Amino acid sequence: MANETNEKDLFFGSEDPGKDPEPVVPAAPAASGKEELARQIAKNMAMNDNDDDDDDISFAAVPAKKEVQPQMSRQTSYSRESSRSSSSRSHSSSSGHSSSRKKKKKKSHAVDIVCGFMALAIVGGVIGAYAYGKKAYDGVFLANTTINKIDVSKLTKDEAIAKLTGQIDFNDKITITKRDGTRVDIDLKQLDFSSNIQDAVTQAYEKQNHNLWFKSVMGNESSYEFDPDSKFNETKLNAIIKKNVIEGQNVIESKNAYIDRTDDGFELVKEVVGNSIDEDKIGDIYAYISSELAKGNFDISIADLDVYEKPSILASDLQKQYDSLAGIADIEISFDFVYEKATLKGSRFIDWLDFNEDGSYSVDRDEVNKYVDELAEKYDTYRKDRKFKSTNKGTITVEGGSGIYGWWLNTEPEGGMADYITELIEDGKSVTVDPIFYSSGGIDYEGNPDCWTAKDDIGNTYLEIDFYAQHMWFYKNGKKKWECDIVSGLPTEGRNTPEGVYKLWTKESPSKLKGENGGDKWETTVSYWNNISDWGTQIGIHDATWQPYFGGELYKWSGSHGCINVSYDSAKYVYENVPIGTPVVAYWE
To answer: Are 418 and 435 spatial neighbours (Cβ–Cβ below 8 Å)?
Structure first.
């Protein structure tokens, strides 16, 4: 079907009787065959018109008479004169014979006249029958005529149009089915719809040569075929589609699949395939419906037409993530804090996950930071007050002070525990790992793992310094190995040695000490340098051969710039016998 019908021949593969020549009325045959020809023509016309009750024309058969040829004389006449002479000479002898020949000639002329009238009657009958038949088929299709295999014999054009229209499937409406199952009916009259049946019937009628009507009566068939087509107003069609199909619907937006957190775990929510139409593809709807209507399809579905907005994420795209998330509750991420493991279970961090539309998820860093703070609060010992069993004063509390010994969990927002935990959660695997502690300038802010317990991280191997007593002890595995008097820092704001739990970081022998404190500058070379602080405070245990003695109250007027002054032998002992990493507990209790 097309929305325009060109003025052209609609038919294909048909017999075209219109090319036959104009009929010629048969001429009278020679005298010897007139009767037989008349009889045969009448017989054929009568026999082939028996199918038409209204136009039945019969011709009576006229029996043929055998023509009698007159007997010709064998005498030969030479001339009128000699004939006359001969006649006069023999007049008397042939008078009887002459009378007999005249009677025979009269009889022969009578037969000729009868045969002539009969021939004229036959020719007149043929002409009359032809004229009557031509009039009978005037304005109607010839006998044995079909259009698209539908018999239209002896029908007028209007009757043929009505018959074809009734049998060829041209509806009075088109029905458009949308994705949501709703149906929209459009009356074809609204589209100025018309078919090409009328043109096809007219062309078929005009192709027939009605002058040769008797050929169809004698069994000659005329068959015409054409493609049913139509015309309609495409502008009106598009306007109705836009109003009733595109705009006149309950829009269901397409939605992406996603993974939802539920009380029981996770749920894979499937995508929603809606009926919202892609604005860029509205023209495709117009073109499709128009083409289907042009093909003669009156029930048109656009449900599966590729014009709808589609979800960009399907459930199948998220299946892998969903399968991995389904086991999150069983994941355990353990951190080895030497004396025990802190385990972060999936059943807890599952609530920290924020799921994206594409099925991926992000970890709530605020929740991770809170968890890191919990770990630091429980496991950090760096600069925290500690209970300590002193040599002379029993159990005391040593303030964290400036001491740098202990475990200090890295809580930095980047590169610390928060990043580490986030990565482990995203990996989605059960693992046991070491925590991340601060490390700076070659100094690891960690304690002695051999002595770390839930209540203590100093253990039984340590250096003990009592500032009030100005005395130092070294214990190894709980046994005192060395003790000596000391001189600590001058008790002023800039030179006083702060209490705290320190750590033997580095050793050097010899070592040049150079610094500035409170406006005082110094530069001194010592034999043994045992550093117990970070690089900022530079507190160490070293030999101070310039001191007149050690202990007592010497520190009050000859105190150091903050270091622990000891004798040469004591500095050497520490250098040679106290391991790096040994805690140094210094207090003013």
So the answer is: no
Distance separating alpha carbons of residues 427 and 360, to the nearest angstrom? 12
Q: Which residues contact 33 (CB under 8 A, 6 or more apart)?
A: none
Nearest to 73 by CA among 104, 113, 95: 104
Its CATH architecture, for the domain 327-449, is: Roll (3.10)
Mean pLDDT, all residues of the chain:
79
Instruction: Tell me the pLDDT tens digit for each residue of 45-80.
Output: 444 444 444 433 232 333 333 333 333 333 333 333
3-state secondary structure 455-472: CCCCCCCEEEEECCCCEE
**Dihedral sign for Cα atoms in the order 370, 377, 438, 429:** negative
Cα separation, 172 vs 191, whole angstroms: 11
- For residue 201, the surrounding DSSP H or E stretch is helix 197-207
Q: Do residues 261 and 350 make contact, with C-beta atoms less than 8 angstroms apart?
A: yes
Q: Which two tokens stand for residue 437?
A: 């502690």
Q: For Cα atoms 233, 234, 239, give the angle at the middle one, nearest 5 degrees.
A: 105
In Å, the largest CA–CA distance within the chain is 218
Q: Any long-range contacts for 338-344 (C-beta under 8 Å, 24+ apart)?
A: 338/449, 338/452, 339/452, 339/453, 339/454, 340/454, 341/432, 342/375, 342/378, 342/379, 344/371, 344/421
* Helix or strand run (H / E) with residue 118: helix 80-136
Extents of the domains making up the chain: 1-62+102-250+275-308, 327-449, 462-587
Q: How many CA atoms lie within 13 A of 237 on its CB side?
A: 24
- Let me know if 25 is exposed, middle or buried by CB neighbors in 10 A (0-12, 13-18, 19+): exposed
Output the six-digit token pair for 129: 């029958």
Measured CA to CA, the distance from residue 519 to residue 367 in angstroms comes to 48
User: pTM of the full predicted structure?
Assistant: 0.52
Which residues share a beta bridge with 585? 464, 501
Report, as an integer, the average pLDDT of 140-154. Answer: 92
Q: Dihedral of the CA atoms 16, 18, 22, 28 (nearest 10)?
A: 40
Please check whether the domain covering 462-587 is classified as CATH 2.40.440.10. yes
- The residue type found at 560 is S
pLDDT at res. 203: 92
**Beta-bridge partner residues of 517:** 520
How confident is the model over 345-374, as a mean pLDDT? 85
Return the residue matching tokens 């964290």: 400
Cα–Cα distance measured from residue 296 to residue 2, given in angstroms and rounded to the nearest whole number: 9
Are the folds of 327-449 and 462-587 the same? no
